[in-house]
Amino acid sequence: MKIRAAVLEDFGAPLGVQELELAEPKAGEVLVRLVACGVCHTDLYTASGADPSGYSPTVLGHEGAGIVERIGEGVRDLAAGDHVVTLFSPQCRECEHCRDHRTNLCMAIREQQNQGYLPDGTTRLSRDGEPIRHFMGTSTFADHTVMPEIALAKIDPDAPLDRACLFACGLSTGLGAAMNTAKVVGGSTCVVFGAGMVGLGAVAGCRLQGAERIVCVDLSSDRLELARGQGATETLVGGPEAVQQIVDMTDGLGADYTFEATGNVNVMRQAVESARMGWGLATMCGVAGKGETLDIIPRFLITGRRVAGSSFGGVKGRDQVPQFVDMYLAGDIDVDAFVSHKLTLDDVNRGFELMEAQDGIRSVIDFA
Ligand SMILES: NC(=O)c1ccc[n+]([C@@H]2O[C@H](COP(=O)([O-])OP(=O)(O)OC[C@H]3O[C@@H](n4cnc5c(N)ncnc54)[C@H](O)[C@@H]3O)[C@@H](O)[C@H]2O)c1
Ligand SMILES: [Zn+2]
Ligand SMILES: [Zn+2]
Q1: Residue 176: CB within 6 Å of ligand 1?
Q2: DSSP 8-state secondary structure symbol assigned to residue 346
Q3: Where would I find the H helices in the chain?
Q4: 248 CB-near residues (< 8 Å, 6+ apart)
Q5: Are the C-beta atoms of 41 and 116 separated by less than 8 Å?
């Protein structure tokens, strides 16, 4: 079938919205009609050429939500009409990692996905006979996509898809960092560095876990205001003094849980140093630049602080994304506050501009 998609042709140049050919889903695959898709930093990171593992031509986009149109042979858990959220982090439920509660890093299709292929090593996307590679196994900057069944979370059809799409990436990452990775305990003190989609999700996750104090640190007062809306009890303007300020706010001890959601290694260090001795846990969500390292004075670890990393918030997507969507429908998570702009697919490059200008939290492409 013919589809319209935003193609990354040359790194650093705008995406070109054009017609491509999309083949039918093969065994274990599903054809999804996208209804909405968020524009995320990872898309821009790849489009800019900064990602050393990036390739082109490809169709970007990974924060999709849509409706199943057709299923391939052997697909058991999805049927036409189902509402789904796309998962760049799949869940096969069979590999060693999927069967272990300690991680969400499914190993089933990693290699092929990283190279831009579907699990059988081929692509469904093409242009005049030339294969076009998939991106993050999702390629959701398109009105339709073909994805493996194990990379789709079936959600309640009552959930508006222009909200549900945010659970495909940053929001679930933040929520999961607090709920799965750190497993924040009720009554505790938490500090979240960064109030973008990931940090705001972490604030909401800490609130849902029953944290007593949630301090959010960011450079932007507008974003700190949004953090209050998600449950931050205190806010702080970030900078070199942040660690001392947090220590002072916590009787000289530091916080039970800290979260880093900026991607800046100096802030990661602050997250470690503002966690309290004895049991403070610092969880890293941000993706640092190539070659950058996190500097930790070992004394901080010997005196009982721990450091954890969190990919997609430790969320096993097919199981937990539907639960998050249910929490949103029950009124426990305010997703509306994150949708700052609605765009058409033709305006996808505008979404990148808005992100670079830090205008709003998320732009959402509406395919309707
Ligand atoms: N671990 C994962 O699976 C995963 C998933 C999605 C995104 N990420 C990463 O998480 C990070 C955050 O993503 P996002 O979409 O929320 O980004 P964002 O750019 O919207 O938010 C980052 C925030 O950090 C703030 N900030 C910058 N410097 C700061 C400082 N010194 N002190 C305090 N705050 C500071 C900025 O003002 C901004 O509000 C990125 O590195 C992104 O790549 C990771
Ligand atoms: Zn993303
Ligand atoms: Zn798996």
Answers
A1: no
A2: G
A3: 41-48, 110-115, 161-164, 170-176, 197-208, 221-230, 242-249, 265-273, 298-302, 317-329, 348-356
A4: none
A5: no
* pLDDT value of position 251: 96
Nearest residue (by CA) to ligand 1, atom 34, is 218
The low-confidence residues of the chain, meaning pLDDT below 50, are: none
What tokens were used for 198? 């990931």
The b/e string for 20-36 (b: 16+ C-beta within 10 A; e otherwise) is bbbbebbebbbbbebbb
- For residues 232 and 203, give the distance between their C-alpha atoms in angstroms, rounded to a whole number: 6
User: pTM, whole model, 2 decimals?
Assistant: 0.97
Read off the pLDDT of residues 276-296 as tens digits, 9 standing for 90 and up: 999 999 999 999 988 999 999
Judge contact between 192 and 182, C-beta under 8 A. Answer: no
- Does the CB atom of residue 288 touch ligand 1 within 6 A? no
Please tell me the distance from the alpha carbon of residue 356 to that of residue 43, in angstroms, as a whole number: 12
What is the pLDDT at residue 51? Answer: 87
